[in-house]
Amino acid sequence: MQHRDEHALLEPFKEDFIGYEEPDVYEVLELAQPYLPRDGAMGEMVLNVGKAIYLAKKGADGIIDISPFTCMNGM
Question: How many helices (H) and strands (E) does the chain have?
C-alpha cells in the first residue's frame, strides 16, 4: 500500500528526480560500517551516517541533520 501511494505521489515529478534515486539500504549500511557498525548501533543512526557518506561521495556540499533535541542522533 505504501509503495502504491509513493508511486502515485511521485509520478508527476518523475522526470525531476531522474539521477536522484535512493541508494540500496545495504550500500548505506556498508558505508556506515567504519564509523558506526550496524551490529553495535542499529537503527536510524547507522542509516543517517551511511546516507551522509553516500551524499558526500555524490558531491554534496554539506549535510544538515535535523533531529529532536534528546534524540541519540542529535547528541
Answer: 3, 0
pLDDT at 31: 95
Alpha carbons 44 and 32: distance in angstroms, whole number: 11
Estimate to the nearest angstrom the gap between the alpha carbon of 10 and the chain centroid.
18
Each as own residue / partner, the long-range contacts of residues 23-32 (CB below 8 Å, 24 or more positions apart, any chain) are 23/51, 23/54, 27/54, 28/54, 31/57
- Give this prediction's pTM: 0.70
Residue whose C-alpha cell is 531522474: 18
pLDDT tens figures, 27-51: 999 999 998 877 777 778 888 889 9
In angstroms, the CA 58 to CA 8 distance is 27
pLDDT reading at 74 higher than 80: no
